C-alpha cells in the first residue's frame, strides 16, 4: 500500500467526501491512528502544549518539530504526514520558509507542511509550492500569534469575515492544497468551504467544513483540566492510565506483583 497524497485529498473534495485529521507527536500513537485509517496526521506544534510541557506553541523549535515529525513518519505507512512549521521558522520570508520546510521534508520525511497566516503568508506558500512542497495553510485563530490576538473566536463581524475570506482566497491562490479554519463561526466556515475549491479543515468551525481536525490528547481525554467547547471526548485515557498506574503501584507495595507467572526460574 502507498501513502495518501495531496492528490487524493483534492479528489475527496471533488467527490464531496469528508475526512478526519488528528495530531500525533510520537511513533506509537501515530501507528494507532495509521492502523485506524486516519488519512492525514498532523504533527502539530500543539506538541508544545500537549507533548513538551510548554504553555503555548510559541517556544517550539524547528529542531523539535523535525524530531517529532520523523518519529511520526517512522510509525506510519499509509497516512499523509503534515509537519507544522513552528513560530520563527518562516516569518522572516519565503527563503527562510523554504529552508525550514526543506528540513521537515528531507530530515523527517513529511509529505506536506503547514504554516499559519493568510494574506501575510502567501509569498511563503507560493515559494514552497513552486519548490514542490505541498502546503496546508491555517487561518482564523492562529495560536503562534497568541501574544497579539489571544485565544478568541475569529471572523466575527462583517469586516473580520471579509478579511477571513480574503485570507482563504489568498492561500488558495498561492497554491495551498488545504486550509485549516480554527475557531471561526460555523456560518462563515461554511461560506469559505463553498467558495474555495481546496478542502477546508475545521477545528471549532462547525459541521460544514470538508474535514475535521482535533488534537489527539483532547479527543482521547488525556489533556488535564478543561478542554475547549469544540472538542468531543471519545475516551477518558487520563482516568484509564491513572487507574492502571495506581493498580501497579498498589501491587508493588502490597507484594502482589510480580507473581510466579511473571517470573523466570
Ligand atoms: O498544532 C496543531 O495541533 C494545529 C491544529 C489544531 C490545526 O495546528
Ligand atoms: Na499548529
Automatic annotation (TrEMBL):
Q: How does it assemble?
A: Homodecamer; pentamer of dimers.
E.C. numbers: 2.1.2.11
What reaction does this catalyse?
Answer: (6R)-5,10-methylene-5,6,7,8-tetrahydrofolate + 3-methyl-2-oxobutanoate + H2O = 2-dehydropantoate + (6S)-5,6,7,8-tetrahydrofolate
- Quote the catalytic residue positions: 182
Subcellular location(s): the record lists: Cytoplasm
Q: What is this protein called?
A: 3-methyl-2-oxobutanoate hydroxymethyltransferase
* Protein family: Belongs to the PanB family.
Give UniProt keywords alphabetically. Answer: Cytoplasm, Magnesium, Metal-binding, Pantothenate biosynthesis, Transferase
A GO molecular function term, named singly, is: 3-methyl-2-oxobutanoate hydroxymethyltransferase activity
Gene (UniProt): panB
Q: Which residues bind 3-methyl-2-oxobutanoate?
A: 45-46, 84, 114
Identify the metabolic or biological route this protein is part of: Cofactor biosynthesis; (R)-pantothenate biosynthesis; (R)-pantoate from 3-methyl-2-oxobutanoate: step 1/2
Entry's cofactor comment: Binds 1 Mg(2+) ion per subunit.
Name the needed cofactors: Mg(2+)
Q: Which InterPro entries match?
A: Pantoate_hydroxy_MeTrfase (IPR003700), Pyrv/PenolPyrv_kinase-like_dom (IPR015813), Pyrv_kinase-like_dom_sf (IPR040442)
Pfam family, any one: Pantoate_transf
Chain's role: Catalyzes the reversible reaction in which hydroxymethyl group from 5,10-methylenetetrahydrofolate is transferred onto alpha-ketoisovalerate to form ketopantoate.
Binding, Mg(2+): 45, 84, 116
Amino acid at each position: 500500500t502507498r501513502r495518501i497524497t495531496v492528490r487524493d485529498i483534492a479528489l475527496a473534495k471533488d467527490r464531496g467526501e469528508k475526512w478526519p485529521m488528528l495530531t500525533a507527536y510520537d511513533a506509537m500513537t501515530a501507528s494507532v491512528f495509521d492502523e485506524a485509517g486516519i488519512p492525514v496526521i498532523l504533527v502539530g506544534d500543539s506538541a508544545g502544549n500537549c507533548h513538551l510541557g510548554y504553555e503555548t506553541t510559541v517556544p517550539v523549535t524547528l529542531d523539535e518539530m523535525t524530531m517529532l515529525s520523523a518519529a511520526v513518519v517512522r510509525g506510519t505507512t499509509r497516512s499523509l504526514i503534515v509537519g507544522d512549521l513552528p513560530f520563527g521558522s518562516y516569518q522572516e520570508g519565503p527563503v527562510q520558509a523554504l529552508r525550514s520546510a526543506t528540513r521537515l521534508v528531507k530530515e523527517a520525511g513529511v509529505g506536506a507542511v503547514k504554516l499559519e497566516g493568510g494574506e501575510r503568508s502567501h509569498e511563503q506558500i507560493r515559494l514552497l509550492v513552486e519548490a514542490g512542497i505541498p502546503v496546508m495553510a491555517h487561518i482564523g485563530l492562529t495560536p503562534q500569534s497568541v501574544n497579539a490576538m489571544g485565544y478568541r473566536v475569529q471572523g466575527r463581524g462583517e469586516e473580520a469575515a471579509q478579511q477571513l475570506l480574503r485570507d482563504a482566497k489568498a492561500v488558495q491562490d498561492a497554491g495551498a492544497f488545504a486550509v485549516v479554519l480554527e475557531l471561526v463561526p460555523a456560518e462563515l466556515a461554511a461560506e469559505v468551504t463553498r467558495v474555495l475549491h481546496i478542502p477546508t479543515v475545521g477545528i471549532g468551525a462547525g459541521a460544514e467544513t470538508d474535514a475535521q481536525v482535533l488534537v489527539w490528547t483532547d479527543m482521547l481525554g488525556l489533556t488535564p483540566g478543561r478542554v475547549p467547547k469544540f472538542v468531543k471526548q471519545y475516551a477518558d485515557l487520563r482516568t484509564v492510565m491513572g487507574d492502571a498506574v495506581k493498580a501497579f503501584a498498589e501491587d508493588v507495595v502490597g507484594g502482589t506483583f510480580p507473581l510466579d507467572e511473571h517470573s523466570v526460574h
